[in-house]
Records
---
Amino acid sequence: MRTKYSILTVLAAILASGSFAQQLPQFSQYMQNMYVLNPAASCLESDIDINLGYRQQWAGFDGAPQTYYLSGSVNLGKQPEQSGASYSIPISHRSLLQTREEIRKAKHVVGGLVAVDEYGLFKRTSVMASYSYHHPISDKYWISVGTSMGWYGLNFGADNVILENPTDNTYGDFIANGNRSNLFDINAGLFIYSDRLFLGYSVYQIAQNEINLGNESSPVNLSQAKLNIHHFATLGYSIPVADKVDITPSVMVKLLGPAPVSYDLNLRAEFNRKFWLGVSYRNEDAISGLAGLRVNDWLRFGYAYDFITSDINNLSSGSHELVLGIQLDRKNER
């Protein structure tokens, strides 16, 4: 069954991908996988970190954004041979810091992310590869720098359009000049962390490549539209409040071009390293409930539900996000 769009809806969808709109997926469960916001935030807790994610934004709203992704990162360094030593900060095993003598060595981490982001008539496919370098800067703190680069493919779904006016010349001219665009881009990030603190900054879509849909003579012209630079800043600190209970307040600030500053205020409680509950507020957009479960030492699952607070709350039943994480450690190499 094909979705019906009037020409005005088509134009609105086209403009939504242009110079003044958010062009990257939005996440509520990013604390489970900081790598989706910062290429330097890779392999923070394990040698191998794999995450599968799905987000349905504005459920019940026709053409609402949907995002699927698979990310993974691998630490290329070797664990120290000394018995009982640890080569990195075990954020998920904080007690080890008090029971083992640490040997802290620099880490080289490679990773990648494949994502599909669908919104309205558009589909964006991303394939990115990353490298990050992690260096100890004190007894408890690390600093990492990272970059990712790769390909974006933007596709306009012309096959899903039925025009109210089948002979609309504006739409016909736009489609005739191309409904696909291939772009190369680069991202970069900085991350400072310990077993309790994280502080990060990243910048995405540095190349600001042209989208190149349509052409200069087309009445609907995106040939000069560009990818916007997106800035992300994150800060959080885990506070022990009781035996086996930690509270983590955090904030994420997002800035893109002339759009208003967006921020998330988060509060998460983790119980005995088995499960966590949390709440998040995104200004002028949503209030989110967060929950997660560590099934065992290597498998964890997270879910977020966003209650929409913006003007479209009467048209949507909310947003849903699922993340499945796999964390593995290699044995000592001798």
---
Amino acid sequence: MSAGARERNVAELAAALRARLVERRRAEAAAGKERGGDLREVVRDLVDEEAALLTSADREEIAVRIVRDSVGLGPLEVLLADSAVEEVMVNGADRVYVERRGRIEATDVAFADEEELRNAIERILAPLGRRVDELSPMVDARLADGSRVNVVIPPLAIDGPALSIRRFGARRPGPDELVALGTLSARQRQLLETAVAARRSILVSGGTGSGKTTMLNALSSFITAGERVVTIEDAAELRLQQAHVVRLESRPAGVEGRGEVTIRDLLRNALRMRPDRIVIGEVRGPEALDLLTALNTGHDGALSTVHANSPADALNRLETLALMAGVGLPHAAVAEQVQRGIDLVVHLERRPDGARLVTDVAEVVRAGGATAVRGLDGPGGTG
């Protein structure tokens, strides 16, 4: 028997026995019987009973599959077991992609059908107190290990449920490791260490997947141990090494539409927490105005990120986001706050080969009545 045929047979038998297990448990529940024993032991007993003619190795593999598809993430478990996988992207039941070392690759992993994919999504969200349905067809969540999860289901996702899991290791590379990787040059590293120590406010910019959060985490390592740091994020991804850190995370509205806590709410509260440093995972809305207000009223040395294509675009985007606060400030006043509040912009790009690279370290200056940037250092290496 070929390896492909064996794989199909094992998968089909595992699916059939899992369906039998579900039927048995439903019957027990209907009869009022209590479920006894560990699920893994129950599954192994079922496999030994129904597949006694198979080898012990095959029976063990089938049992592992049944448990995986019952309480785990199904076929995705094998991908998430690979430490090189940075992100898993599911575009419907039969199309699964991963990102390794900055490159996206197709996989041969697939769900049996859309129902199996939806079951896996429910198993991800249920322990987190989140739900996704036709009334709320999109959801963002964070797993216990810090990985970020995003789900979009029909009718918004036309070709079936779309699931992405962006993984974050328990430890992120520090400045020296980024130099070794070619993301930073030694000169850039020294420049940024000096800037953080001098309490200069730094904005990290770049596109999706360019390494902004990793760079933010590396910059935070230059903050001295005696400072009180408050971090504010949509999904807690930062792994700061300091002992005196308060981590805050936003919260979406509940099913009834109440209970939302925004980044803006957390930032306003953080100012009352006697922070020496404020670190915001990403500025993406009207909280930009509150950040600029804080930076212009004595809360210097902040660190944050923003999606942008260049240092100049990063400042323009920050101005636009601040204007979204809708308080009626003229653009010139907002631009003035940006110029006075932000000191440096660190810009990253992800190259076609997957390498992340700091392409600019730029200083914010005033030129001809407008906010501008002046490059202090260029590319950090070849990647």
---
Amino acid sequence: MATTKTRKAPARKTSKPKAASAKSAKTVEARVPAQTSEKCMKGFFAKKFDPKENILTIFKSPRIYGAILGEVIGTMLLTLVLLLLGVYQPLYIMFGVIAISAAVYGLSGANLNPIVTAGMMATRRMSAIRGILYLLAQLLGAWLAYFVSIRFISHVSDEPADKLPAIAEIASENFFVITMLEFMGAIVIAFFFARALTYKRSALTFAAIYGTGMCVALLIVIVLSSSFLELQNNFIMNPAAAFMYKVLPTAGENFGEVFGAICQSLLAYVVLPMVGGVIGFYLADFSGKLSGECLACGKGCDCKEIKK
């Protein structure tokens, strides 16, 4: 008898796994831009420093001690340059800032100026405790520079030991002008520093942008003060160094006059320059945001940090 062979119908391939995988892929693709835009849109008030860093944890790592030492050494060297050369040598100061910043950037980020540290804290790039430690380190570095300077001058010159190039005392008629010069210069310095952070992976590029910004700020203020306002030696744009320039008056006819002059000096050389630093950082962030930069990483919204 002839046997009939029955052919088995081929199994149908189900397309459900493909559909499921395609759906999951679309979900992932849709999720990445959402995370990207969300992180980039956090904007100005998002934390950009380690959220675990606080007064209880910051001293557990030896890196903070290296950072503080870097700020002390860097600020001391920068203040020495300012004290011995004066602020009317912008090119020399630019090369000095570039060299010092490149040397200590890996240690502390090379703030070297309370103007910059104030802007870093206000834009939440730096925790409050780290910012306070940096400010104290900068004051210590500036004092060490002053101590070295007066010792050097007393040994090589017949001048008194405390005779250093000093900023002229603020006269009441020049208070507004001098304050505006310090304020404008601080904005320029902070803006350049914030933009230099975009190139933080290259210490030399960062230092070059920061040093050039310092030079530009000095040139602007020098031209305005000397050519148009006929003022000389009346700005510094570094609150830590300003104290070493003896901007705080110590003599007057009465206590009220001395106290008023001290308040004017602090406002002109400390408070408003640090406010200018905050404004400079926010201007840099705002301009970067308008150009499509991510405030978290300084790149476009398709940055790789979101995908990690």
---
Amino acid sequence: MIYAVGIGPGDPDMLPHKTVLLLREADVISGFDTVLSLAEKHFNPNATLISMGYKDQCEKLEQVGKYSREEKKCVVCFMGDVNFSGYEYLERINNSCHEPNPIIIPGISSAQIAASKTLTAFEASVFLTFHKRGDISKDKEFLVAALKLGKAAIIIPLPWDFMPAEISRYLIERGIPPKTKVNIFEHLTWPEEKTYHRTLKTCKEKFSDVSIMVISSIDSQL
């Protein structure tokens, strides 16, 4: 059996109780190196660890699938929540493990933390991730349309092509008021967490690739 679990935004104490129990009971624990390091305090010390990078992920996932077919309890760790920018990786699990439909255990996403810090209600906002492969032009157009409808936006940028400074410049060019408030968070819930309060006009710095951006609704600033 394969479980796809979200291990949260970085703080190892922000894992759901069910995820902690799975990690303590797992025979096999797998994921990207940086993700595994965030949750290792909860790992079964006797579990087989299969860490991976972008280049060897398919090969390593095949190993996970083999263990699963041997009736081992396998846990594949996702950053944050599987349902927030995680479906491309989930598709690789389906294809490479040859064990379709892993059991998904949701986690806490940095989007939820950012929403809480900015008092941004999900029902009054849109969530967009540009951190994916392929063309993002339609997503960019959707962002502009949502903001013009009075929505707030919670955004995961695309390193290093469409980061907060580029997003801000693009929105100004598309008619979003330059004074629109923007909050950028780096390494949310990590010891090195940083917060930046900007407007679209003043958002010009380079930020970490572990960043998330919250754009306030235009209506709230009128």
